[in-house]
């Protein structure tokens, strides 16, 4: 399976084409829209999210509610396009050059793609960079993730993202490590910051208010858990087949993510081997090998090992600040303070939804590589036969 996305932040629409999605999967667009809404909500988002009410428009690949196995094209309109069409218009006859010139951006914002993008692509107007570098693009990835989650649920595989930390406010591991995935999903959905602990949610919200009041911004840590993955997804035989590598790349590709860890991750570096590796057990009832602990985060040797996959991502604080940072104008090379009128102060809850989507995609992709991607019935049979065989080992 593969997909590409297209679209500018204030262009007409965001578009994606997904190829290789199996036939015979029942698709409810309302479910995709629900995931899009989750990405848009979350305490700390700015004015843009009040304008956009994302809704998917499926253009191909689904007929009568079922996937056909042909490419699925999806579109999400940008409602803000109405306010920008004169300067974002693709066709020259409808393009307002004078207005575009007036709105030209020559002042790069620190922490953004603006400056290097302008140098690389030879743009004088940095709008040509920021329109595509913007995290608005993640809406299409959430739509792809929604399809992936529908597919995975058919195989009893469930994916959930939640917020572990916002700035200094951090969830204690013992408060969620033993929770069932369904409970994590339910608790996170009840929190405005997607945190499973209501007390810590309240603290996170007041911290966001405090920091926003000072014109500053916040980052944090999100976690994605995948339950029900059979052992043996991904492979050790080649670098680009490793599941941990592919998941990490997908999560790292999310705007503002600066660190990814799987399982104990960075903390394993200062632990002892005897305290970090998960001892192997055998569950007679299940007829399956299990692990007594899950510090590996469900992946060993680039393959799922049958335990829950646990991935964490560190998101940097939002770079556009009300409180100005120093920068230099691209044209006249004069210093100026970079500030802005409209931006998110904290997008960590949205990042959890995007991370959930991209992890769901990588797991779905790796599953279809092992069990085929032609149609749902074959995939279910292949998975069942595989489980039968590994139980006989
Ligand atoms: C869901 C989401 C929303 C974001 N919203 C904003 C925003 O409102 N303002 C902003 O300056 N950056 C925002 N960002 C982060 C920037 O897009 C990102 O930092 C920038 O494109 C530079 O990329 P890099 O941080 O990956 O290097 C957001 C990121 C995500 C994941």
Salient structural properties:
single chain, 393 residues, alpha+beta, Chorismate synthase, AroC fold, five-stranded antiparallel β-sheet, four-stranded antiparallel β-sheet, 13 helices, globular, binds flavin mononucleotide
Write the layout of secondary structure elements.
Layout: E1 2-6, E2 13-19, H1 29-40, H2 48-51, E3 56-60, E4 62-63, E5 66-67, E6 72-77, H3 81-88, H4 97-102, H5 114-121, H6 127-133, H7 138-154, E7 158-166, E8 169-170, H8 181-190, H9 198-213, E9 220-227, H10 243-252, E10 257-262, H11 273-276, E11 280-283, E12 288-291, E13 299-300, E14 303-304, E15 309-315, E16 325-328, E17 335-338, H12 348-371, H13 376-391
Antiparallel strand pairs: 1-2, 2-6, 3-6, 4-5, 7-8, 7-9, 9-15, 10-15, 11-12, 13-14, 16-17
Helix pairs in contact: 1-7, 1-12, 5-6, 7-12, 10-12
The site of flavin mononucleotide has 21 residues, from helix 12.
Model description:
By secondary structure, this protein is α+β, with helices and mostly antiparallel strands. The protein has one domain (2-391): Chorismate synthase AroC (Chorismate synthase, AroC fold, 4-Layer Sandwich). The chain has helices spanning 29-40, 48-51, 81-88, 97-102, 114-121, 127-133, 138-154, 181-190, 198-213, 243-252, 273-276, 348-371, 376-391; strands at 2-6, 13-19, 56-60, 62-63, 66-67, 72-77, 158-166, 169-170, 220-227, 257-262, 280-283, 288-291, 299-300, 303-304, 309-315, 325-328, 335-338. It has a five-stranded antiparallel β-sheet with strand order 8-7-9-15-10. The longest helix is centred in the C-terminal third of the chain and has 24 residues, at 348-371. The two termini are 30 Å apart. The relative contact order is 0.16. The model has no long low-confidence stretch (mean pLDDT 96). Flavin mononucleotide binds at residues 46, 111-113, 133-135, 138, 254-256, 316, 318-320, 343-344, 347, 350-351, 354. Flavin mononucleotide (FMN) is lined by residues 46, 111-113, 133-135, 138, 254-256, 316, 318-320, 343-344, 347, 350-351, 354.
């Amino acid at each position: 399976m593969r997909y590409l996305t297209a679209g500018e932040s204030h262009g007409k629409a965001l578009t994606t084409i997904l190829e290789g999605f199996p036939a015979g999967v029942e698709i409810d667009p309302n479910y995709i829209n629900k995931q899009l809404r989750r990405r848009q909500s979350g305490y700390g988002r700015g004015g843009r999210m009040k304008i956009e009410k994302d809704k998917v428009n499926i253009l191909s690949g689904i007929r009568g509610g079922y996937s056909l196995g042909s490419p699925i094209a999806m579109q999400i309109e940008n409602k803000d396009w109405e306010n920008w069409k004169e300067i974002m218009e693709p066709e020259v006859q409808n393009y307002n050059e004078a207005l575009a010139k007036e709105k030209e951006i020559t002042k790069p914002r620190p922490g953004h793609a603006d400056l290097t993008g302008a140098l690389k692509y030879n743009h004088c107007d940095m709008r040509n960079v920021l329109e595509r570098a913007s995290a608005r693009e993640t809406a299409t990835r959430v739509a792809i993730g929604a399809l992936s989650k529908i597919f995975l649920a058919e195989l009893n595989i469930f994916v959930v993202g939640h917020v572990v930390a916002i700035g200094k406010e951090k969830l204690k591991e013992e408060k969620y490590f033993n929770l069932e995935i369904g409970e994590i999903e339910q608790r996170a959905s009840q929190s405005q910051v997607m945190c499973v602990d209501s007390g810590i949610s309240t603290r996170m919200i007041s911290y966001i208010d405090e920091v926003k009041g000072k014109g500053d911004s916040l980052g944090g840590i999100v976690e994605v858990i995948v339950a029900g993955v059979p052992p043996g997804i991904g492979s050790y035989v080649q670098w680009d087949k490793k599941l941990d590598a592919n998941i990490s790349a997908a999560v790292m590709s999310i705007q503002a993510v600066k660190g990814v860890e799987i399982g104990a991750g960075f903390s394993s570096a200062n632990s002892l081997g005897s305290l970090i590796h998960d001892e192997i057990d055998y569950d007679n009832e299940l007829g399956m090998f299990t692990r007594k602990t899950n510090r590996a985060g469900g992946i060993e040797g680039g393959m799922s090992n049958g335990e829950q996959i646990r991935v964490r991502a560190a998101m940097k604080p939002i770079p556009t600040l009300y409180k100005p940072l120093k920068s230099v104008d691209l044209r006249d090379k004069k210093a100026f303070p970079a500030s802005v009128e409209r931006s998110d102060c904290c997008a960590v809850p949205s990042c959890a939804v995007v991370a959930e989507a991209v992890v769901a995609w990588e797991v779905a992709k790796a599953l279809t590589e092992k069990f085929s991607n032609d149609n749902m019935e074959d995939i279910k049979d292949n998975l069942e036969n595989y489980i039968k065989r590994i139980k006989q080992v």
